[in-house]
Amino acid sequence: xxxxxxxxxxxxxxxxxxxxxxxxxxxxxxxxxxxxxxxxxxxxxxxxxxxxxxxxxxxxxxxxxxxxxxxxxxxxxxxxxxxxxxxxxxxxxxxxxxxxxxxxxxxxxxxxxxxxxxxxxxxxxxxxxxxxxxxxxxxxxxxxxxxxxxxxxxxxxxxxxxxxxxxxxxxxxxxxxxxxxxxxxxxxxxxxxxxxxxxxxxxxxxxxxxxxxxxxxxx
Length: 219
Description:
By secondary structure, the protein is mainly alpha-helical. It has nine helices and two strands, in the order H-H-E-E-H-H-H-H-H-H-H. The protein has a two-stranded antiparallel sheet with strand order 1-2. A hairpin with a 2-residue loop joins strand 1 (about 40-45) and strand 2. Mean pLDDT is about 80; it is low at about 200-215.
């Protein structure tokens, strides 16, 4: 049986993390783009919005647990976590190019975020964190500590959501979908073509696995 003190400490940690996410990311969470993520399921019955907020909370908790508060820029950490899946489409749709989703959605999220929030929010730290959060699927690791925290938190949350008993409940319905904002993603085919070369001058996408998939696909 779990000790009450342990449970209370866990609740306090989660509460503190959520307040930090609100402090540094409420403007992003309330934006039409992030609100539109409530339209899409991510893992099982978890929406992309719910997953993104969970990753932000987890990243903050990890930073606190390892006493990294002075080594990370909290605004960049929270922004990176909230926007890491800002691709704005439903990857479960039966589209042929969605087979590459795991390799390219970080780059598409970065382009969408730069378009909607600008360079002031999507700075070098945030941009690199978005593009490389799927490491090692993309073979370029994050350059910054913020990116590593987001990458690890994303995998922790995705695993929890995927194996959760609620994952196997398919009767959840999204409420008031018609009232949610719809923010279009960048044209999907154009986004894929762009990721072959550069992403708004951020840098070359060097994933050999991604290039191999495209090469095999073109045969």
